Amino acid sequence: MAKIQSIRGMNDLLPEESPLWQYLEGKLHNLLSRYGYSEIRFPILEQTELFKRSIGEVTDIVEKEMYTFEDRNGDSLTLRPEGTAPCVRAAEQHGLLYNQMQRLWYTGPMFRHERPQKGRLRQFHQVGVEAFGMVGPDIDAELIALSARFWKELGITEGLTLELNTLGSSDSRKAFREALVSYLTPLKAQLDEDSQRRLDTNPLRILDSKNAETQALLADAPVFDDYLDEDSRAHFAGLCERLDALGISYVRNSKLVRGLDYYGLTVFEWTTDLLGAQGTVCAGGRYDGLVEQLGGKPTPAVGFAMGLERLCLLLEATENLPEKKAQADVYLVSSGSRAEVEALKLAETLRESLALRVVTHCGGGSFKSQFKKADRSGARVALIIGESEAEQGVVQVKWLREEREQQELASAEVVATLAAALETPAQ
Ligand code: ATP
Ligand code: MG
Questions:
Q1: Does 376 appear as a known binding residue?
Q2: Binding positions for L-histidine (predicted)?
């Protein structure tokens, strides 16, 4: 029978890759708690309406990338393409937002039907960080500082650039949108197809077009800065001042608009040229209007999401991978059913008393093949129990990584001996 394969663009994570993910996640959990952020978990499926209303009907995600289907009741459900909208939905539903400040984070798979390639998958993973109830640029700066510290703790000191922009208040966006449409309408025929369509529906996204001819036409387009009102300017200046004070450098990219509708004021992306076209590792901004748009009271909010697959690629590209760890400290080798029982018991005693990783050989086999597995496990020491050892209540201790004579110990002495010996690192 033909074997069933995974879905294109949805990867398995194999045992040899999972230590890198655990390393990343461990660092993130630690960092987020040091900044006072709490984890929130919400389902992978939501009502389709949630994403339509938040991300925007005329965005790449909603127009072409969502996994949407009818369930058995005929309800339209969508596999979450991002976490901000469900995070707001959950926080609002459980009364976490009204008159409160919240610092939240989440992680997990997101789903988008895109063309799979390096750094672009159909099931990918994000860590998202969202802060609610804080209106000033200090929280924007905190989030950016948190991301900057994360790169530092991962050893990525070069290769990432912080691109920063402001999308202003909704009034200034409206004024700018009108000016942009007036400028582009006579040039419509020369725009790429997507941009032609967006001219009517979502003209700001044209700034983000990857098409070179469209970009050339934009060279003389009106500039957003000229349309910013005073409050928007003050917020942005406040953010820049704080980033300067923190020593975080950035590049102003006035074309940065982001692919989702809900952003206003601050937007930012951490980008790299080490990953080809998939160069954005982390992206976010302020979305003060979203909570209200989803039925809550007006609530200031700002957040970002980072793509973990791209981060893994970046760690590889910058040679910042964590050291490979051995799978075990101690490997138990045994032969004969009585010895097997003794080995299982001894392994439990060791795990009970010492913080060691203990692997018991299961399933029998010759001593030779068991030693091969012991070696491959990376263990420093093999404990051997054959028939006669089992009978006499002793264990042979064989050091696998250092010049040291094999010892015979009474079973009762093994814990004390290993405790003393394994405290010193291997030579
Ligand atoms: P892009 O411009 O690369 O399509 P995006 O603007 O659609 O990115 P966001 O919605 O802002 O991305 O998501 C935040 C982050 O999630 C991105 O910066 C990226 O690191 C990651 N990401 C987004 N889509 C994918 C994907 N299909 N596969 C892997 N990672 C992704
Ligand atoms: Mg995208």
A1: no
A2: 82-84, 112, 126, 130, 258, 262-263
